[in-house]
Amino acid sequence: MDWLTTITHTFFDIPSMLQVFPQLLGVGLVNTLIISIAATVIGVVLGMVVAVMGISTSRWLRIPARIYTDVFRGLPAILTILLIGQGFARFSQSIFGPSPYPLGILALSLIAAAYIGEIFRAGIQSVDRGQLEACRALGLSYAKAMALVVVPQGIRRVLPALVNQFIAIVKDSSLVYFLGLLVGERELFRVGQDAAVLTGNLSPLVLAGLFYLVITVPLTHLVNYFDNRFRTGRRKPAPPESGLDELDEVQPPAPITLGSNT
Q1: How many CB atoms lie within 10 A of CB 215?
Q2: pTM for the complete prediction?
């Protein structure tokens, strides 16, 4: 059973996990959520702009949106993070100081915007063309029809895909550590990696992975729930009626018995 002892000591050393748990919870988890949520919010805003440009009738808007999407979806995430984090480091230092934290968020935001833009574009184009034509027939301008009718329907249809994209951003946030974050800015992976080096085993990294699972697994089930809800609708079909009441109504009247006259 030496192999079992070795595996337990390497991956499931409880004292090492307990030692790093406060840092993972108070530093790593907080920074991971900050990076992921900030990148998602910025990515949603930029993605909507890219989606609107992508479905525009003007090629001067459509072609740049296509190029942006192809570039940031085609490059590996780590390459984009390093190019932005190191290429704009001097410019960022004059604004944010030595922290590469904002550049990491910016890189993830640009990557997310390329994917979210495609998600929005697919959702908007899935709305029936008649919706837009009906709005125009009622006197609404193209911009108002898109903003008030078409875009809200498209967003509602792609909510599960947006949650999936947020899950991807949470996992990609572990790549920001390549920029050399400060001690108080370390995300889950960097905290677990530093603790693994100090303790000499991989138990802190396993615990960091469990933290990622705590975030991503419930969101995955939430995606499935929303997807099923949007597909089936909120109203449940009414159970079929037995029809007995209708049968009672069409029953022939009881025969009239003539009594004898006395």
Answers
A1: 18
A2: 0.80
**C-alpha–C-alpha distance, residues 80 and 98, integer Å:** 20
Burial of 146 (0-12, 13-18, 19+ CB in 10 A): buried
User: pLDDT per residue over 195-250, tens digit each?
Assistant: 888 888 888 999 999 999 999 999 888 877 777 776 665 555 555 555 455 445 55
- N- to C-terminal Cα distance for the chain? 108
CA–CA separation, 205 and 203 (whole Å) = 5
Using an 8 Å Cβ cutoff, are 111 and 70 in contact?
Answer: no
Name which of 32, 100, 43 is nearest 73 in CA terms.
Answer: 43
What lies within 8 Å, CB to CB, of 262 at 6+ separation is none
Residue 212, both tokens: 């990622």
- Residue 198 CA: distances (Å) to CA of 18, 20, 23: 14, 10, 14
Count Cβ neighbours within 10 Å for each residue of 219-242 and write b for 16 or more, e otherwise: eeeebeeeeeeeeeeeeeeeeeee
In order of 36, 42, 126, 236, 252, the CA distances from 216 in angstroms are 12, 20, 28, 29, 65
- DSSP one-letter string for 1-37: -HHHHHHHHHH--HHHHHHHHHHIIIIIHHHHHHHHH
- CA atoms lying within 13 Å on the CB side of residue 14: 1
